[in-house]
């Protein structure tokens, strides 16, 4: 049984008013729980003009963050440079239209990360699980999921002073001990570089496109994982939970997660591209659930204030503008796009 945390009133929980651009769904990995990927050649890349049209519609919809979420082209592919350039250009475009980009495009080279820092206020990559045994099961055909490759991304982000979001995918064949080991690794890297702004605890939620036949992570277990994560992680790392995946609100699951120590609900937009079978609630719907339980839902930027000084001058001035207006925006959902 998790005891409520002693918190001062009003208790706040944050979310990011966001929209996801997908440069491509093609991915050379084949994680068996994936509901996102297509084979190479099956997903036309998002053109800059298509993206510009979409972004211009979003300018009046209260969106702040543009999450650039891409499937991966193999690092040794002849198309890698073009793929990377598209991701860079989308970030630059989003910035030019006044949005704050956050890119998650799988493992990158050090030079790719360094370049993307110029057009992103933060970046992300799920560590998922450190245990190598998943390379024999759900990640057997997913070279990008080699734990050492992903740990190195966290290290490089730290060296480059990139505010970073990472997290665990729960319920893909790991043990409880594996959770704590993964969380301890994140904590260790953060103690060195101080750059991890959020850790997402994402429960495996089966979707209609995945090949792996396995049950969902039990939402009743999530509060205990959150409470233990709160003990392991440094206090300046926020724990994020995806509100569309934590179980039915009427079951009290979101509130139980907050009582256990989660304080952020991530990017809320019209579609969860990674879990398309689980629509996001709107901010208004979340407020109706959370306010009676004593929680105030507050919009935030995709970069936390303690990292503003790490940004280049042009990014910082845009972020400063957003800091003065973010409280006045509301959820971008539902969007008419
Ligand atoms: S989960 Fe990510 S890395 Fe794995 S196949 Fe899907 S898009 Fe690719």
Could you characterize the architecture of this molecule?
The protein is α/β, with parallel strands linked by helices and 337 residues long. The chain has one domain: TIM Barrel, CATH 3.20.20.70. It has 9 helices and 9 strands. Strands 1, 2, 3, 4, 5, 6, 7, 8 and 9 form a 9-stranded parallel beta sheet that branches. Helix 1 links the parallel strand 1 and strand 2. Helix 1 runs parallel beside helix 2 and helix 4 runs parallel beside helix 5. The longest helix has 18 residues. The radius of gyration is 19 Å and the shape is globular. The C terminus is likely disordered. The chain binds iron/sulfur cluster.
Relevant CATH superfamily: Aldolase class I
Which whole number gives the mean pLDDT?
Answer: 94
Number of helices: 9
* Main sheet specs: 9 strands, parallel
Topology:
Layout: E1 11-21, H1 48-58, E2 65-69, H2 80-96, E3 100-104, H3 110-117, E4 122-124, H4 147-159, E5 164-170, H5 176-193, E6 196-203, H6 222-232, E7 238-240, H7 253-259, E8 264-268, H8 283-290, E9 295-299, H9 313-325
Parallel strand pairs: 1-2, 1-8, 1-9, 2-3, 3-4, 4-5, 5-6, 6-7
Helix pairs in contact: 1-2, 4-5, 5-6
The chain binds iron/sulfur cluster.
Iron/sulfur cluster (SF4) binds at residues 27, 29-31, 34, 36-37, 71-72, 106, 142, 144.
């Amino acid at each position: 049984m998790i005891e409520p945390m002693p918190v001062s009133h009003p208790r706040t929980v944050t979310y990011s008013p966001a929209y996801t651009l997908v440069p491509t769904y093609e991915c050379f990995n084949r994680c068996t729980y994936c509901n996102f990927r297509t084979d190479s050649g099956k997903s036309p890349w998002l053109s800059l003009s298509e993206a510009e049209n979409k972004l211009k519609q979003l300018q009046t919809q209260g969106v702040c963050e543009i999450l650039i979420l891409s499937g991966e082209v193999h690092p040794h592919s002849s198309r890698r440079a073009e793929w990377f350039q598209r991701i860079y250009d989308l970030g630059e475009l989003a910035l030019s239209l006044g949005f704050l980009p956050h890119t998650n495009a799988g493992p990158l080279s050090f030079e790719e990360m360094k370049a993307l820092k110029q057009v992103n206020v933060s970046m992300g990559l799920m560590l998922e699980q450190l245990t190598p045994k998943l390379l024999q099961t759900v990640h057997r055909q997913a070279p990008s999921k080699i734990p050492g490759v992903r740990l190195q991304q966290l290290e490089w982000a730290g060296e480059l002073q990139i505010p970073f979001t990472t997290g665990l995918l729960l319920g893909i064949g790991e043990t409880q001990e594996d959770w704590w080991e993964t969380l301890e690794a994140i904590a260790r890297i953060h103690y060195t570089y101080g750059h991890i702004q959020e850790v997402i605890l994402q429960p495996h939620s089966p979707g209609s496109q995945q090949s792996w036949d396995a049950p969902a992570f039990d939402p009743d277990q999530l509060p205990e994982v959150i409470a233990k994560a709160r003990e392991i992680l440094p206090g300046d790392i926020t724990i994020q939970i995806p509100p569309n995946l934590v179980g039915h609100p009427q079951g009290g699951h979101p509130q139980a997660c907050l009582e256990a120590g989660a304080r952020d609900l991530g990017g809320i937009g019209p579609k969860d591209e990674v879990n398309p079978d689980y629509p996001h609630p709107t901010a208004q719907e979340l407020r109706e659930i959370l306010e009676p339980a004593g929680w105030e839902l507050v919009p935030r930027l995709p970069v936390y204030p303690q990292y503003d000084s790490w940004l280049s001058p042009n990014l910082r001035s845009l972020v400063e503008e957003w800091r003065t207006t973010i409280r006045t925006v509301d959820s971008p959902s539902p969007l008419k796009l």
